[in-house]
Amino acid sequence: MTVTENATGTATRRQWIGLAVLSLATLLVSLDLFVMLLAVPAVTAALGATGSEQLWILDVYGFMVAGLMITMGNLGDRIGRRRLLLAAAVVFGAASVVAAYSTSPEMLIGARAVLGIAGAAIAPCTLSLISTLFPDARQRASALGVWAGCFTVGAVVGPVVGGVLLDHFWWGSAFLIGVPAMAVLLAVGPFLLPEYRDEKAGRLDVVSVVLSLAAILPAVHGLKQLASHGASTTAVGGLVVGGVFGWAFVRRQRRLTDPLVDVRLFTRRTFTVTLASMMTYSMLSGGVMVFVAQYFQLVQGMTPLTAGIALVPGMVTSTVAFQLAPRLARRIRPGVLIPGGIAFTIAGMAVMSQAESTAVLVVAFAVECIGAAPLVTLGTNLVIGSVPPEKAGAAGALTQTSNEFGYSLGIAVLGSVVAATYRSQMDGQGGSSLAEAPTDVLDAARDAFTDGLHAAAAITAVALTVISILLARTLRSVPALVAGETR
Questions:
Q1: 85 neighbors 136 (Cβ within 8 angstroms)
Q2: Is pTM beyond 0.70 here?
Q3: Is-contact 40 54, C-beta < 8 A?
Q4: Measuring CA to CA, which of 15, 55, 79, 243 is 20 to 30 A from 218?
Q5: Rounded CA gap, 321 and 383, in Å?
Q6: Which tens digit of pLDDT belongs to each residue from 143-184?
């Protein structure tokens, strides 16, 4: 199959069907990831997992995804993006079945690790294949809007679907959600998706792969430890080790003729500011979403299923925004549209910082979810569109890795804000968190947690105001999307 079906490069119905297949895989992988958050108690009861094993069951997937995404993006550019995607689909489906029927915590941890390896390939391959399917900038932006919207829907619907599955089936059903999507991808992918690889690419530098893993894995582990236990020796040590290996990785990339990451891209102001802004947005909004979900359950006493339903209005506004953003981008410059979208997030966070009722918080969350669409859609389009077609996989991997870092960093940073506010108000009487508060001080503990959420939302509003101003200045000369425009 060729990349385009006519001389103008305009995508045909076959390409849009290909996008539907890629989006379905993205939706189910995202949903599968977030369902796991609800399955842990049932898994623990069924397999007798210890506290340490529970953490590994939750975290090993994210560790493997974060650590291998850059490598997988480059591998797809070298051996073929469709080939790698289909191989990852086989592995993901098989590992999902193994996870569902695991008979011990160790078996489940191993299956989750393999799932992470496959997941690390799926995200950059789907992104780079979208870039190949849609060379026209306007159509590519629309396609990226669909793709990103599916990931967001999966993130929010995951807890709802998980609640339904765990209410009616055994715990292993939570791991089987992605299997049908992988089967569809394997059945129709070879006919609908184009193959693309860089024929001139050199060999994959193994030392760079090792250095990237040695930089990313300790850093992500340190961030998670920082979020859970504060500035412990393990947390600080992980960040230091990651930083040292990260420095060595960057230094090596500068010397290679065919690097794993072309660090020269970061000399481009638009590329760097856009990528950094996307990571910061993921950090702030993702962190707040975690604490909003905790507020619904710990303060308002909702079940996980009910808390997931309370997040659905945000899913709806986000989905609509992701479809509108590419259309608006045809008339409005990114330097106006992206900050304008972030303004919705700022407004929602400002209301959230004062919200005292569940209804107001639900509405505020729905408003703030609008803001991600222009930044994610146009930002991803700018990042991928700024590199040659043969490097699209590596660029897509960078965007996804930055989002993974941002999410982990957000939980750590904003978690520290919430925890500090809680401890200062409880004065040692409510344990280290609301979940540990004694019954006799539970009302005060709930108020303290709510104040922590308010503080996190207020900080996010201020920080995103600065980000929106920076984006407005950096992108002021970037034009609106033009029909027929390609890289």
A1: no
A2: yes
A3: yes
A4: 79
A5: 20
A6: 877 877 777 777 667 767 777 777 778 888 878 877 888 888
Domain boundaries, the chain: 11-135+147-203, 205-259, 264-480
What is the residue type of 468?
S
Per-residue pLDDT, 480:
72
What is the C-alpha separation between 415 and 341, in angstroms, rounded?
25
d(CA 451, CA 288): 13
Domain 264-480 indexed as CATH 1.20.1250.20: yes
Selection from 477, 481, 468, 124 nearest residue 274 by Cα: 468
* Residue 266 banded pLDDT, cuts 50, 70, 90: confident
Q: Which of 41-45, 135-139, 142-146 has the highest mean pLDDT?
A: 142-146
Q: With CA atoms as reference, report the closest residue to 178 among 122, 127, 126, 129.
A: 122
* Pair 100, 92: CB distance under 8 Å: no
| Contact of 397 with 388, CB cutoff 8 Å | no
**Bigger pLDDT: 135 vs 317:** 317
Q: Pull the structure tokens for residue 85.
A: 């995607």
At 75, phi and psi to the nearest 5?
A: -60, -40
Rounded Cα distance between 180 and 166, Å, is 19
11-135+147-203: CATH number = 1.20.1250.20
Q: How far apart are CA 333 and CA 140, in angstroms?
A: 16
How far apart, in whole angstroms, are the C-alpha atoms of residue 408 and residue 225? Answer: 10
Q: How far is it, in rounded angstroms, from Cα 391 to Cα 198?
A: 8
Q: In a 3-state reduction of DSSP, which class is residue 283?
A: helix
Alpha-carbon distance of 303 to 289, in angstroms, equals 16
Within 193-333, residue ranges assigned H as helices are 206-229, 233-255, 269-294, 304-310, 312-328
Distance CA 182, CA 190 (A): 13
Taken in order 471, 472, 478, 481, the sign of the CA dihedral is positive
382 by Cβ neighbours in 10 Å (0-12 / 13-18 / 19+) ranks as: buried
pLDDT tens for 430-439 read 666 676 677 7
Three-class SS of residue 427? coil
**Residue type at 82 in one-letter notation:** R
- As a whole number, the mean pLDDT across the chain is 80
Distance of alpha carbon 89 from its chain centroid, rounded? 19
Q: 372-385 and 392-426 are packed helices; what angle lies between their axes, rounded to 10 degrees?
A: 140
pLDDT the model gives residue 32: 67
- Residue 71, CB half-sphere, CA atoms under 13 Å: how many? 23
Q: How far is CA 457 from CA 224, 370, 437, in A?
A: 20, 16, 23
